[in-house]
Model the fold of this input.
Amino acid sequence: MTTSYRYGTGVQAFHWLTVILVLTAYVVSEGDGYSLYSPAADGLRRIHETLGLFVFIVVMLRLLWGLIDKTPKKRPMQRWMAVAASFVKLTLYALLLSIPATAVLGTWLEGIPVTLLGLDIDPQFTRAKESGQLIMNIHSILANVIIWVAGAHAAAALFHHFYLRDEVFQSMIPGRLTNLTEAVRRSTTKSNSVS
Done:
């Protein structure tokens, strides 16, 4: 469970599993949603869709977990940083839910089944190809946006760790890695003071 300034093991597991699933789904997508629907890419499409649905499931479980596990105390920081952190967090959650949702909706509207663990789930809507293509274009844009927002989130965590030297980054990493990250931070401090 969450302690006063650290997230609990459950939250950390959901966080890092989501990171791995999102990055893998993005890499597998080849950056072009429509190339996945070629016969040659059928295996990649099935993996991509399964990963995307897992992202949705993991995020929903993470949100439910938040109902039973408390959030750590917020460390004092400048107001603009707190507002930016809240905005990025909400944006990430919105993207993590809307990206899989737009993929399923767009795919079904195009009349194509969605794959989960090798099982094809037939379209649940009447085919509307143009609407499906529009939604799939939105899906592709959102997928690119989440990479940028997640990158900014990661950069901010590293800024907190190496420049502000607070525990924001360490609050989300497993306990065993805390000592390693602290050692890296101390070594960069020594090398900066020697320069």
